[in-house]
Design a protein that fits this description.
The chain is mostly helical. The protein is built from 18 helices and 3 strands. Helix content is 60%, strand content 4%.
């Protein structure tokens, strides 16, 4: 009997909530009791302050006493990454609880929800994106965009999952069109620092990094030391290292010359323990290369 009463109460709560949302939305559509007009990039939306404030920390702060918007009947919403369509979806969500997000719009909705501080939507969008990150069909451009949105909005879990998805598919995505042009030095550095970076070999990774540097040599050569420092050079074919780092452009960078020298020294004395070998000789998680051993 108690279970039946609980189910009945739950059903009643759901019915009441549904009817309440329907009434609120009808009032918005008919502009009954609306007391604020919102402008988003030229588009006009009518709403109720109390409903907005209850649903969004952004609006709660905006309409608080002391803020100029608290006494204005028309307010411009100035959020950098906010699109009109994303705002429309969020306003509909506030009044209906329905949120028809798709793969095509989920990033725009996530950015808008984070800026407007609608936390339940941020959570829903993040979960949907993290689920999609496990699918192979997402290309480099999409994965990078997800990472950049998560990083810009300080969404820690989504940021880590997007980086992990890039790391686990690195051996594939570095061959995709746009890799050499679009991935930044800081993003490449983050990926090279990961132990779960998946590549056929460290030599493959080294030649990929060299190709990335040469793609825009004037701008990227100054970044070469800190980027190459994250490659596990003790596991790279020494002949490949010498062939690349003996080039004139790299010899003009003292730190690159130093790395080449350490690689060569490690090659001629492979069983001598050194800090360089310890740091640069440990295979990554997915690597099939054996770690260096010492006598």
């Amino acid at each position: 009997r108690l279970q039946a009463e609980m189910e009945l109460e739950k059903e009643f709560d759901i019915k009441y909530s549904r009817e309440m949302f329907q009434s609120l939305n009808k009032m918005r559509e008919s502009r009954s009791y609306t007391d604020v007009t919102l402008r988003v990039k030229g588009e006009v939306f009518h709403a109720h302050r109390i409903i907005l404030a209850a649903s969004s920390r952004y609006f709660d702060a905006m309409f608080s006493a002391g803020m100029k918007e608290s006494s204005q009947t028309e307010v411009e919403v100035k959020a950098d990454d906010l699109t009109v369509e994303a705002f429309r979806l969020l306003l509909d969500f506030i009044y209906t609880s329905a949120l028809p997000v798709t793969e095509a719009n989920v990033l725009d909705v996530l950015e808008a929800a984070d800026q407007l501080e609608i936390l339940s939507v941020v959570e829903k969008c993040s979960l949907l994106i993290m689920h999609n990150l496990t699918r192979d069909k997402l290309n480099l451009e999409t994965r990078l965009k997800i990472y950049r949105v998560a990083d810009r909005h300080n969404l820690t879990e989504l940021r880590e999952q997007s980086l992990r998805s890039l790391a686990l598919r690195f051996g594939v995505i570095c061959d995709e069109e746009g890799f050499m042009e679009n991935i930044t030095a800081d993003e490449l550095l983050l990926l090279l620092s990961r132990n779960d970076l998946s590549v056929p070999s460290e030599t493959f990774l080294f030649t990929t990094v060299i190709a990335w540097i040469k793609y825009n040599q004037e701008e990227r050569l100054p970044q070469a030391p800190r980027i190459l420092d994250k490659v596990r050079l003790a596991l790279v074919d020494i002949m490949v290292v010498l062939e690349e780092l003996e080039c004139e452009e790299f010899q003009e960078v003292p730190e690159c010359f130093s790395l080449m020298y350490k690689c060569l020294l490690q090659h001629v004395r492979p069983f001598l323990f050194s800090a360089f070998a310890e740091e640069k000789g440990l295979p990554r998680v997915d690597s099939k290369v054996s770690p260096l051993s010492y006598m």
